[in-house]
Amino acid sequence: MIVNKSYFAVLAGTFAAFGSLFGKLSGLEAFKGYLFVCRILFFCLMIVSNSVSLTMFTKALHNSLSSLYATVTCAATNYIISGCLGIFFFQEETSSLWWCGIGLILFGLNLVAR
């Protein structure tokens, strides 16, 4: 199967972002009493998501000519999706300065990868 060289790196970053989301959800105090099962479920989802992320990252490293390209693509995907998940699930407010900062980080990562 021929896949784009960034496919696995994007998947790795996506699963890493969701692993962070599940980790944060597993630590919420809102899940007390009988809802403690939800905390356990989110903790297990975090472990699974991080395991899949590492597997996808390993495949990205294997399919990439340079480990730097896979690392940069994975990190960029993780940054953007983590920011969007924070806004959507936790109503975190991000300023335009935050998004400009992410843009500069991605620009710098792109410079390093070239």
TrEMBL record:
- Report the gene name: LOC108733791
Q: What is this protein called?
A: Uncharacterized protein LOC108733791
Membrane-crossing segments per the record: 33-56, 68-90, 96-113
PANTHER family listed in its UniProt record: TRANSMEMBRANE PROTEIN 42
Q: Which InterPro entries match?
A: EmrE-like, TMEM42
Q: Which UniProt keywords apply?
A: Membrane, Transmembrane, Transmembrane helix
Does the keyword Transmembrane helix feature in the UniProt annotation? yes
Which Gene3D superfamilies does the annotation name? 1.10.3730.20
The UniProt record lists the keyword Cytoplasm: no
